[in-house]
Amino acid sequence: MGREPHREIGSQRRDCLDASKARKARGSKVADAAVTAESERAQARRVLIAADKFKGSLTAVQVAQRVTAGLRRVDPEVRVEALPVADGGDGTVAAAVAGGFERREVTVTGPLGTEVIAAYALRGDTAVVEMAEASGLQLLPEGVFAPLTATTYGSGELLRAALDAGARTIVFGVGGSATTDGGAGMLAALGARFLDEDGEPVAPGGGPLRDLASADLSGLDPRFAEVDLILASDVDNPLTGPKGAPAVYGPQKGASPEDVETLDAALAHFAVVLEKSVGPRAAEHAKAPGAGAAGGIGYGALVGLGARFRAGIDVMLDVLGFGPALDRADLVITGEGSLDEQTLHGKAPAGVAAAARAEGVQVVAVCGRLQLSEEALVNAGISKAYPLTAEEPDVAKCIAEAGPILERVGERIGREQLPG
């Protein structure tokens, strides 16, 4: 009888030991589960969204936001970095601001001669100037075109504002213009003089350049001699001829066949008069890649301001810090409104894909419409494309409801491209 209590105490000890072992086992399992979860989180793909705008539907910033929302429906903890991009055309300043530049606004002369508010971007002594902000098609009233008289004067004023703000490197994004004046208006705003036979300034626009008798560039702002001016464009057309600015881009600015002939002859005459003023380089620059960009404003920048031409997307990727962002990514999502043959010739998605492929990082693309074959995509470095039309065949709905549909596309990418 006296030993019963000891057996009871021993039994309690054994129970306590068993419970302790159980707790340790459970704790070990919890710890193991935590380690596994942490490991899974460590293995989660890091996604970089570097897409251009869906023109007429979504800005590049909105594209990134919508894709991110879709990805997070699949994995709420997915690590996403957004770096909206542009190729030098409209949307370039917005991409720079999204990348950390300060937005600056200034009143300038619009393409029709009336005042408009235009923006440029500034960070330190580097400015991003978008000619479409001052001389773009989007500044014209709906249905109104001025192919012969639209001026780039405001683009010159915008460049001067960047100089006044202390810029010493200027990325001059050219595209989306309403103009075909060879950059004459821009140069006039910066101090050049273009006179007719009576010694009077020629009227604004490309058409009146046929009356040009003399050109004097000696009064151009001397600060350009000390500035690195980068002509950023996605086109490499010459100034005139079958592949020149009037022939290729004039019709989309409202130019009739007769207008195209007038403009081509006027710009050719412009180059001849400039050659008398500045020498053989005027003729050489007329044939240079990028001279025909944005209605020939590229020519004005090359011959008058000492600009150097670079593919717009390459410049913007450098300015926005794409390289370091790419180093942090396992998957890149790029895209634009339409993936087509033009995409392969200097557009943002092609530039992003080429840079990512060089570093061995997988790239997929989002778009409104897909007009490239699978082979063309792969050759460009894009493993797969996800068009909105795969979710909604009605193109009109894709344009009107691009945001929600793009979120569904992002969700699909998440299911197919994210681990687990």
What would your notes on this structure say?
The protein has two domains: 44-83 and 328-417, Glycerate kinase, domain 1 (Rossmann fold); 92-313, Glycerate kinase, domain 2, CATH 3.90.1510.10. β11, α13 (348-358) and β12 (362-370) form a beta-alpha-beta unit. α2 (60-74) packs across α16. Strands 3-4-5-6-9-10 form a six-stranded mixed sheet, with helices on both faces. It has a five-stranded parallel sheet with strand order 2-1-11-12-13, sandwiched between helices. The chain has 420 residues and is of the alpha/beta class. It has helices spanning 4-43, 60-74, 92-98, 131-135, 153-164, 184-189, 245-249, 257-278, 281-286, 293-305, 312-320, 322-327, 348-358, 374-380, 395-400, 402-417, and strands at 46-49, 79-82, 102-109, 115-123, 126-130, 169-173, 193-195, 214-216, 228-233, 308-311, 331-339, 362-370, 384-387. 49% of the residues are buried. Helix content is 44%, strand content 17%. The chain is elongated, with a radius of gyration of 29 Å. The N and C termini lie far apart (63 Å).
